[in-house]
Amino acid sequence: MGQLFEKDHDNENALKMYLRAVELNKQSPIAHYRTGMIYIKNGDKGRGIEHLKKALSFDPNNVDVLAKLGEVLMKDPNTFDESEQYFKKALYNDENNSDSLVGMGRIFEKRNRLEQAIACFEKAIKQPVTNVNAYYHLGVIHEKQKDYKKAIQLFKQCLIVDQVHFAACIHLATL
Predict the structure, then answer these.
(1) What's the pTM value of the predicted model, to 2 decimals?
(2) Phi-psi region of 161 (alpha: psi -120 to 50; beta: other; left: phi over 0)
(3) What's the CA gap between 25 and 37, in Å, rounded?
């Protein structure tokens, strides 16, 4: 029921349904995951992380939860190292998970370990479910390396996958 409300962009009622699901089954990783995601969408990162970690306590190898925790924690410099650990564990469980590959690539990029970042992004691009951000971040790296032709190609590929990728549009406009 919560997913129906979520699909209609009614996060308030979706949250109520997910909280009810948690109440009925306190050990449901899915209920905690969905609750955490709604809290994050609503801007309550603290409660969102709490529920994602609770989901992980019941399903410790859930790659989707690990990747989402890594993504959320990466945005805060104080939890950057913790974020890396979640991505590493996700990749240990599924070395081809595109969200985790992009996450690790972004970690390597921020640490200026560009060759490792490129390897992660290129591997993510080759997966059946392509994360559009792999193209974007790979384009950013090539732009930094002044390989503008390759950067333009990657930003264009990003826009083929997601026609409204705002950041890719901005980069293309400036190259």
Answers:
(1) 0.87
(2) alpha
(3) 17
Tens-of-pLDDT digits for all 175 residues of the chain? Answer: 667 767 777 778 777 888 888 888 889 898 999 999 999 999 999 999 999 999 999 999 999 999 999 999 998 889 989 999 999 999 999 999 999 999 999 999 999 999 999 999 999 999 887 789 999 999 999 999 999 999 999 999 999 999 989 999 899 899 8
What CATH class does 1-60 carry? mainly alpha
Q: Residues 100, 63: contact at Cβ < 8 Å?
A: yes
Task: Locate the domains of the chain by residue range.
Answer: 1-60
d(CA 27, CA 21): 10
Tokens in use for 152?
A: 């333009």
